[in-house]
Amino acid sequence: MIEFSSEHSATWLELMRAYQKYKEAIFYWVKEMDTVKRQDLFLELGAPLVSSDRDLHKRLLVTSFLSSKEMWDEKTLLLACEELVVLALTEQEEVAARARMALTRIKSQTERLSIADKVCIIAAKEAEKEKPDYEVFHNGCILLRDLASKEHFAGFVEQYKQFIYLVYGLDENDLEEMKNRMVQDA
Predict the structure, then answer these.
(1) Given a cut of 50, is residue 49 above it in pLDDT?
(2) Which of 54, 69, 99, 142 has its CA 20 to 30 A from that of 105?
(3) pLDDT tens-place string over residues 96-131
(4) Quick one: pLDDT at residue 115?
């Protein structure tokens, strides 16, 4: 373990010891078999959204962990991809945002297109419900923008613009501006 000068505060020294232990634990967990990592992630992220076992604080901690840039490679994120897409569309703002951040770390264009397809499938199922959750459409719009999936974004906005407008008041001009910014950023 790296030692720091005793001139530092006790809190700093404890923080550095804990951080080094954290990094070591991550190092060993990343070397676990994919089935073990998948099971660990699924236990926290795969709980049904209306389950009594659902713990927002745990989900926030796990999605924060997944969106951290320190250690996650694309392969590990793909193990929890399906659960992350569901969280990115259906969870409360903070958890959804962190799930989106984790998903945008996936660089494979094939995987990004697969994620975009999943977003469209989930939205289509939600639209068929008698009382759809409009957050799904807003979050889907944001995730497709973040993934820079122009075709999916354009189709999604065209199909669900009334739902997107109902939840956040984004009108056609706002959505067109988002689409144009995606083109400029590409």
Answers:
(1) no
(2) 54
(3) 888 898 899 898 999 999 999 999 999 999 999 999
(4) 96
Q: What is the pLDDT of residue 61?
A: 76
How far is 146 from 115, CA to CA, in rounded Å? 11
Cβ neighbours, 10 Å, residue 150: 15
Query: Are 106 and 112 in contact, with CB atoms under 8 Å apart?
Result: yes
* Mean pLDDT across the chain: 81
Cα–Cα dist 99/142, whole Å: 12
pTM, full prediction: 0.70
